[in-house]
Amino acid sequence: MALKRIIPCLLLRDNGLVKTIKFKNPTYIGDPINAVKIFNEKEVDELVFLDIDATKNEKEPPYELIRDIATECFMPFCYGGGITNVEQIRRLIASGAEKVAINSAAYHNPQLIKEAASIFGSSTIVGSIDYKKNVFGKYTVYINGGKKNIKKHPVVYAKELEKLGAGEIFLNSIEKDGCMQGYDIVMIKEVVDAVSIPVIASGGAGKISHFKEAFQEGKASALAAGSLFVFQGRKKGVLISYPSPKDIRSIINE
């Protein structure tokens, strides 16, 4: 069984950090290097960085920024955004990323997952799934930053990505993003039950009890969160935080 993890998920835009609500209205929250230094001090085990503009604007991943992050970062991290080919993955790994998350390109070119897994190993390749309910109230996967409905159920798509060679699934609820009202427990459990690889669930964490619910009821292997780790108080002042090692142990072991 994969070790349970609680992972800060940081959104990149123009080399800065932002936070969104339901994938909309990105708000600038600071410099990624400063955030990394604080997370080092907090003894975080892993980070995820997602560039929210790279695919939409057909930009290359920000290799220089990734190198700068890797220089400062004491922990392994995953990068996602704008990845369309194996050479980009090679450059990202050379720049210091341990894993890459592939989202839109996995739909447009499924063989990319298969080829990348064969070259770099499945443990390096994360299949990224953004999902929400469509106009008919049915859960479906969206790509291109939540703009394009590919008309696949998250469970079906997760199984396809696993079969292609993805070593993990990053499952992100668009409707829960930034709302801090709790994870989508039902969908997490459905995906976890359908695949044999670890599932990282994201979207909705607002308090410690949400982690416990998602681990216990959703059976997630790992949980990612953004707002909870960058905002403080009712007015959402920017303050980087992370549970203490003691609190992490209580969350994971309860």
From TrEMBL:
<dbReference type="GO" id="GO:0000107">
    <property type="term" value="F:imidazoleglycerol-phosphate synthase activity"/>
</dbReference>
<dbReference type="InterPro" id="IPR020021">
    <property type="entry name" value="Glycosyl_amidation-assoc_WbuZ"/>
</dbReference>
<protein>
    <recommendedName>
        <fullName>imidazole glycerol-phosphate synthase</fullName>
        <ecNumber>4.3.2.10</ecNumber>
    </recommendedName>
</protein>
<dbReference type="GO" id="GO:0016833">
    <property type="term" value="F:oxo-acid-lyase activity"/>
</dbReference>
<comment type="subunit">
    <text>Heterodimer of HisH and HisF.</text>
</comment>
<dbReference type="Pfam" id="PF00977">
    <property type="entry name" value="His_biosynth"/>
</dbReference>
<keyword id="KW-0963">Cytoplasm</keyword>
<dbReference type="InterPro" id="IPR011060">
    <property type="entry name" value="RibuloseP-bd_barrel"/>
</dbReference>
<keyword id="KW-0368">Histidine biosynthesis</keyword>
<dbReference type="GO" id="GO:0000105">
    <property type="term" value="P:L-histidine biosynthetic process"/>
</dbReference>
<dbReference type="InterPro" id="IPR006062">
    <property type="entry name" value="His_biosynth"/>
</dbReference>
<comment type="pathway">
    <text>Amino-acid biosynthesis; L-histidine biosynthesis; L-histidine from 5-phospho-alpha-D-ribose 1-diphosphate: step 5/9.</text>
</comment>
<keyword id="KW-0028">Amino-acid biosynthesis</keyword>
<dbReference type="InterPro" id="IPR013785">
    <property type="entry name" value="Aldolase_TIM"/>
</dbReference>
<dbReference type="InterPro" id="IPR004651">
    <property type="entry name" value="HisF"/>
</dbReference>
<comment type="function">
    <text>IGPS catalyzes the conversion of PRFAR and glutamine to IGP, AICAR and glutamate. The HisF subunit catalyzes the cyclization activity that produces IGP and AICAR from PRFAR using the ammonia provided by the HisH subunit.</text>
</comment>
<keyword id="KW-0456">Lyase</keyword>
<comment type="similarity">
    <text>Belongs to the HisA/HisF family.</text>
</comment>
<dbReference type="InterPro" id="IPR050064">
    <property type="entry name" value="IGPS_HisA/HisF"/>
</dbReference>
